[in-house]
Amino acid sequence: MRRLLALLGLGGFMKSLPEQIRIVDLRIYPVKSCGGISLSSSRLAATGLQWDRVLAVVNQAGQVQTQRLHRKMAAIRSKLDPEAKMLTLEAKGMEPLSVPLSISSMAGAGCTQGMVSMGHGDGVPAWRYPESASQWLTRCLAGTPGLTIDGEERRNRKNELFHLVRFDDTASFKRRVMNDIGGDNALPEDQVAFPDLFPILLTTQESLEEVNRRIPDLDVSMDRFRPNIVVSGTTKAFDEDNWAVVEIGNADQKIRLRCLEQDPRCQIPTIDQQTGEKNARFEPSRTLRGFRQLLDPFWKAGLLGKEGPMFGIYACHGGRSGELCVGDTVEVVERSTRESLHEHWSARRDKSV
Known about the structure:
single chain, M1 Pyruvate Kinase, Domain 3, seven-stranded mixed barrel, four-stranded antiparallel sheet, 20 strands
C-alpha cells in the first residue's frame, strides 16, 4: 500500500499521518520482585492490573524484600491459574510451590493474619502462608546476594528466614498512593498493594530501542524494566515523558490513565530477569545515567525527580474497573509542556480527569 501511494506521489502525505500507538504487551508480577507473566488481556482491579504484586516475600522482621536485596528473586517464576485462584512458584533445583490466592480459602489453609512493612509509611495488613512456603523461600533465597544502587554486590546473612504473604484487600486499610513518596498529585481513589509507589508502569518499545542503540553490544530486554503496559507506535523515543493523560481501548470501553511521574530507575534493570545475574558493566543503568537524568534546577520535579535516570511513566486509574488487551489503541489526550510530569500535575488545579 505504501509503495503504491509513493508511486502516486502521496508518500509524503503518508509520512505526515500520526502513528497509531497500541499495546504490545501486558505484564503482571504476582509476587513482588519475582518473575513476571506476559498476558494477552488483563482486568483492572482497585490496586492495578488484577493479581499484580498482591503477594510479597518478607524476612523474619516482616520487611518486604526486593531484588535489590536478593537478586535471585528474579529467577523465581510464577504460574497463575485464575480459575482455580492458585499460584505456583518455580525455581531451579526446587520442587514447585502452589498456594491459594483467594483470601476466603486462606484461613482454612493454615494462613495467619498480621502486618508487614514496606520500609516506609504505615504497616500493611497481610495474610502469611504456612511454614511450607517459608521453608521453600528460605531454601531458595537465604544467603543470596543483592545489589547496591551503585552496582556493588550486597552480601546477606545465611541465617535469614523468609515468608510468603498476600496483601489483605478485604481489610478496611487502603494503601493510598497519596500517602506515600511521590504521591503528591494522586487522588484518594489511587491505591496499590505491594508495588513500591504507583499501580501502573507504562513503557514504550521506541524508548527501549533507543537504549539498545546506545548500548550496541548488549540486548536489553523490556523485562528488565518490569512494566505493566508496553506500547509501540510512538513518533520518537521517550515521547511518553510528556503524556499527562492517555485513553486506552475503543469508544465503548475507554480506560483513562493519569500519568503522574516519570519512573526513576534503581539498580534492578542491571539484573538479568531470567537468571538473577548482574551485568558486569552495570548496564543499562550506566548508560541511562548519562542521558536520562531530569534537569531540575528549580526543584519542580518533586522528590522522585532527583532519584535516578528515567525510563517509563507511572500512572493511576483511580481504582476503576475495566479490561486492557494487547492490540488496544492508546490515545494521548493531554500532553505536558513542562520539564516533568510532576511539575505538570502540580500546576494543574484539578487533579482528576
